[in-house]
Structures are given as structure tokens and as C-alpha cells.
């Protein structure tokens, strides 16, 4: 059983190596088979390991497989070891399963591209790194995976490197997440200095023993780790990179920026929840950041014209929900929402990619239209994904996961009514912009003619993900609907349960409220964007819309605060004043050479004089000793 | 005996000083020869008659004569002006200082190490010969080789290539030196 | 025979050496330099002989003979070189020999 655990991240990495080294020599078909096959095999092994784990070990006990001792220096050892417990099992399942479907999709999507082998190499490397991240048993190995996914994100965003904008977007993503990564490594340093170990199990035990709740060190290290999570998960204030990252191909957006990498922050916080629980200030900050981010992103998505940017802001918003849930202590609800979100967001990105591909790389929604008759499969899957995103009641999986978060937001002991209010407004915005997107893209008169519909290889993943977006929620249903707690039972020993203060009866009211909100969002979108009212036209050209469109001006603010001063500093430092030190060292050496070379003047008597002086000096020293 | 020693040493020192301060080369060399002769007297007093003789024969008789030959060949006795220019009093300061320091060091070292007094006896040429050809045989051979090298080197280095014009050479307008 | 203490004898030899040294440093004429070298060699040989007579062994005199040999060889070669120099530079100035130095170094 432990062998499977080790194989899960190794297979994609092996695939990366083979494709990277021999990709130019192999045919596209073989590359595709290897790229897709490695991730699929990992998915199979995950399922096998999961079944083994769930049936054999009692809940909460982890299964460790140590491969190699990486660093052993003094008191510090870091092993390359993988831990399988319910949390990592869920993440692995999502990563490998959704990843396999996306790889399958991209086998046809990227077929015309020259960098086919390069694409699959990077994607496999990404999946391998992400699996290392979630399976790591110590924070150093986790950081290795963390950096690996950051690298692959950069490589894949700038995949079509011949366009300079893609390069800029990739650089922006890397730099902004770097800010978060720096905070995280500082947090790791702090933890190491305090406890001399980075092994997660050990660390969590020692943290709860040594640090009191609310102590300064706990708060600081939690804040630093939170900084890292904010960077990777594109939350406030580091959320500016994700909309620009849509410059990459759609499978990349689906895999990295919807399902997996951006949830690395969620994983980190869930993994180190003991540490966060010791700093209630930070937990509150997590929840507040989540709430504010989801609102900001929701408003920004209302004004976007690019199809993928709407989805990008939507991702930011949904991760805000996950952060909100974690901030109030509803860990399993956050992970549940993560899983469902992975399904429908990947679905949305893939079908959006299909639409863009069909319309010859047309990204602007307002230039699309009238597609629902021409590409029915894509339309129906997109519709299902959008419905799940909007949390349409009862039939979609999104309803159950989002509703659980909203319910805990109101009723949990550490929850607050303001959080619930933010979540409800966010849900309204979500369904509003989602159906705005659907109506503008698929309905109305056709402005661009589509090409031929996608083939089987692209459609099958869409269909599978659509089915999952519908039925995935049935494993965790609330109390009053025949309580099904299959999902949260998984985490019994690993993640603590959230304690609720309100009674069960009031839950119905909130369910009805959230259902009503999402449906009214659909209706409002219908009124405004299907019927093409004048309000919509006015809104589109108004100042508020521009403000939302630019992501609430964050890009401009960062440009003013950070970029311009840095550029100004580098301008005045053009002559590189630090270089002067080295220049002066060189000049001093030259000067000494000049002086010393005067002693070689070719005169015999001078030489003998110097000789004599030397003899006198030496004899004097010898005598004085 | 001691007085002879002191007189000889005094003459040696005085004549050396005169030798190095003289402006005429030949005069300086002659003074040097006097100095060498006095040193030879010192050798004799110290009980080394063989090398006293050798000093006179070889050093004063051969080496100094060689010097005089070269000086006469180069015909430099007439250049007293340049010598006056070169021997300014300013030149003497630094060497005198250095020599004084060295002298102080010498005196200090010699005072520190005390040796018991022994009287010197004559060491015969026979003893020297025996020592030369038994203990220091190899050094003698090597000295012979050294002298050979000296002869060959002196001959070769002293040779001057006379510039000869080739028999069939016809002087062209661009040829300034007249040699090929 | 001679009852002068050895320190004084060596001191006189040292004085000779210093005279030779001063002569070398002061004079600019090559011939005088060579002469000063001879004085220095002679003084060194004198020290050997003093030591030999002190220990009453023949070795000091043997060393003198070798020093003599070396001096003879060196003088002959040196004078030959001086002849060459005179023919080349037309002067006996020791400082004229600085033209032999690679001039790139000093001209900075």
C-alpha cells in the first residue's frame, strides 16, 4: 500500500522527464499517451490507495511512506516522505482525477500547436509538484512542491512565449506569488528556529504544547504562512496576478488556476490548522480577507468583457469562500467546497476554452453570440457548470457546498452575521455575473461564426465533469435533508469540527434565502442581459464599470506604490554606485602596481641598495629576537 | 706580532677607502693592490703562509692585472670630469647610514658571542694540500670546471664581431649602414 | 703568535666588507663596482681564514682557495661583459644598463 503512495507523485514526474528529454523525437500521439497516461495512472493509484486507506485504517490515522532522507544536518532531518491522510487523499483525488481529464482534453486542444511535447512536459511536472506539495510530510518538501508549482505556472502562463504580453503576465504572476513565498519561507524559518523541526506531525504537536493561544510567535508565524497562502491563492492583497494569467492556454487555466494551484493556499492552512487555531486573530483575518476578496472579485467580474477573465475573478471569489470557511473553523466545509469548485470551475474553463478555440481565439464575450444551437454539447456543459457555480438549489453540487459555508458563517461560534451577509451578497453577484456571461456568450445574434465542433476527446472530459458538478454534492447534505455526512466523516480525526451555536431548525430559513438569492440573480441577469436593456448599455460605459473592470484599481495602485519607485531607483542607480567600490579597488591595485613598478628601474646600484636595506632589516629582527 | 697585525689592517683599510673614493681608475686599482698586499700580510700573521702567497700571486698579481689591462684597453683614464659629476657628496649619505647600521649590528653580534682565545699556529701548505686532495677533492674538480667555464665564457663574450662587407655586395641607395 | 681576540679580527673583516659595500653603492662606474665586489670577496675570504686559524684546521685556507677561484672566473667573465657593454653603449655608466629593462613597465 505504501508503494502506491510513493508512485502517485512519481509517475507524473517520470512522465515529465521522458517527455522533456525525448519529446522532440517522439510522435505527438506517443507524447499524448504518455502525458495523459501518467496522470491517469496516478489517478488510478490514488483511488486504489484511497480505498485501501479508507477500508483498513481507522479514521484519522495517516499512512507514511518514506523514500529518501533528503537533508540530515545536525538536529534537522528532512525526508522525502509522503503522508496519506484524509485531507491529502481528497486533494490527491481531485488533482489526479481532474488533472487526468484536463490532460485528455488538452490532447486534442493543443493538437495544432508546435509546443505539444513541451506543454505536456510542463503539465506533468506541474501535477508532480502539486502532488508532492499535498503529500509532503514536512514543510520543507511542501515548500519544494510549492516552488515547483510556481515555476510551472510561470512556464505555462507564458507558454506562447512569442507574444510579449504572455511573458509579462507570467512574470507578474511569478513576482506577485514570490512576495507570498518570501513570507512563507520566513514563516518556515521562524518555525524551525522555535522547534528545530519542520515535520508536520511533530510540529503540530509541539506547537500546541509550547505556544499558548494568542502568543506573539504563533501569531507571527501564522501571519507569515498566511502570506504565502494569499500569494498562491490570489487573495487580497496579492490577487492581481490571476486575471492576467489567463494569457495561458485554457487547459492551463483549468488545471492551475482553477482546480489546483490556487488551492494550495487552502491546503496549507488546512494542514497547519493547529497553528492557526492558536492565533484567533489570524483566523479572524483569514475570514475577513476571504469575505472582502469575494466581494471585490464578484463586483469586478460584473464588468469584464473577456470570457476567461470573468472566470478568473470568479475563481478568486470562490477561493474567498474557502478562506471564509477556514477562518471560522469550518475546515471540512472549505475542503468540500474546494472539491466541488474544482469540478465546476475546471468544467467552465474547459468549455470556455472550447468556445474560444471554435471562434478562432476570440476572447471578447460581446463578439460572441448565438452559439447555443451550433455547439450544443459545449453549451449544455457550460450551462451546468455555470449553474453549479451559481449554486442553483437542490440539483447542483455547488448549492450544497456553498450553502454549508453560508450556514456555518451564520451559525458557527466563531462566525459572524457580517460574514454571512458578505457571503449572501457574493452569492447574488455570482449568479448575476455567471448568467450574464452565459447569456451574452451563447444567446443573441451570432457575431462570429464558429468552426467545427469539438471531437470526442475534448467532449468526454466535459461530460464527466458536468456529471460530477451535478451529483458531487450529494455526499454531504445538510441536516434537514436526510443528513448525509460522508464527506465530513472523513475528516473526523484530522480536522476539527466547527461548533454551531444556532439550532438546526433555523437552517431551513437560510437555505431558502440562499436559494432565492441565486435564482433572483439568474432572473436579474435575464432581464438585463438577455433582453438587452438600456441599463446594461449604460452600465457598460459607466465609470463604476471601469473601476470594477480594472479590478478595483489594484493594478494601478501597485504600479504607483511599488513599480514606479523601483524603476525610479534603478534609473538613478544606472551608474551602479556599488560598482564604484570595485572600481576603486581596481584603481588602488593599479596605483600600487605603479608604485611598485618604480622599484624595477633597471639600475644595478638601486637593486643592491634595496638588498642591503633588506639585509639590515632582517638582521635587526634576528638580533632582537 | 700584534702591532704588525694592527698596522697591516690599518694600511688595508686606508688603502681600500682611497681605492673606492678615487676618481682615476688606475690609481684606484693600484691602491687596491696595496690593500691586497696588506691583507696578505695579515694572512701570514694568522698562520696561513700558503694563502698569503696565493693572495699575492693570484689576486694581486693576476686579477688586478687583468683589471688594469681592461682599463688600459678601454682608455678611460681621461674621463675625470664625468667621475666628478657622479661622485657628489649627496651620494654618500645613504650608503654610509646603511653601513653604520650594519657595523653596529656586527659589533653587537660579536660582543654577544664570546670565544675563548687560542693562539694561532702555522698551518703548513702540506696540510692544506692534504685537505684539498682528500676531503675536498670533488670541490677541486668542480673548481676546475668552473675555471674552464670562465675561460670559455670570457673568450666568447669578449669577442667582437667585425662587420664585414660581403664580397659581391653592391651598395644600394637605401642602405645606410653599409652592411647586409 | 697573534693574541688579538677573534672578535676584533672578524670586526676588521667586517669593516672591509662594509667599505666594499659602500664603494659599490656609491660609484657609478662599472669598473669600480667590480672592484668593490673584489674587496667584498676578499673580506669574506679573510673571515674564513680567521676561522680556520682559530680552529687550527686547514679548511679555512681551502675555502680561501675556492673563493679565489670563483673570484678569478667571475672577474674574467665580468670584464668581458664590460667590454661588450662599452662597445655597445659607448659609456661605462652602470645606469646605462637600464636600457636592458623592458621599458613598458616603467613608462606609466
Radius of gyration of chain B: 24 Å
As a percent range, the share of helical residues of chain B equals over 70%
Q: Proportion of β residues of chain B?
A: under 5%
Mean of pLDDT of chain C: 86
Biggest interface, which chains? B-C, 85 and 69 residues
Features:
heterotrimer, B: 180 residues, mainly alpha, Four Helix Bundle (Hemerythrin (Met), subunit A), 7 helices, C: 108 residues, Helix Hairpins, 4 helices, 76% helix, elongated
Model description:
Chain A has about 625 residues and is mainly alpha-helical. Among the domains of chain A are: about 345-540, no CATH class; about 545-575, no CATH class; about 575-625. In chain A, about 70% of the residues lie in helices and about 5% in strands. Chain A has helices at about 1-20, 30-55, 85-110, 115-135, 140-155, 165-195, 200-210, 215-235, 240-245, 250-260, 265-270, 275, 280-300, 305-325, 330-360, 375-390, 395-410, 415-440, 455-470, 485-490, 505-530, 535-540, 545-550, 555-570, 575-595, 605-625; strands at about 65-75, 75-85, 475, 485. In chain A, strands 1-2 form a two-stranded antiparallel sheet. Chain A has a two-stranded antiparallel ribbon with strand order 3-4. In chain A, a hairpin with a 2-residue loop joins strand 1 and strand 2. The radius of gyration of chain A is 29 Å and the shape is globular. Chain B has a domain at about 1-120: Up-down Bundle (Four Helix Bundle (Hemerythrin (Met), subunit A)). Chain B has helices at about 1-20, 25-45, 50-75, 80-85, 95-110, 125-135, 135-160. Chain B is extended, with a radius of gyration of 24 Å. With about 180 residues, chain B is mostly helical. In chain B, helix 1 (about 1-20) packs antiparallel against helix 2 (about 25-45) and helix 6 (about 125-135) crosses helix 7 (about 135-160). By secondary structure, chain C is mostly helical. In chain C, helix 1 runs antiparallel to helix 2 (about 30-55). The termini of chain C are far apart. Chains in contact: A-B, A-C, B-C. At the B-C interface, helix 1, helix 2, helix 3, helix 4 and helix 5 of B face helix 1, helix 2 and helix 3 of C.
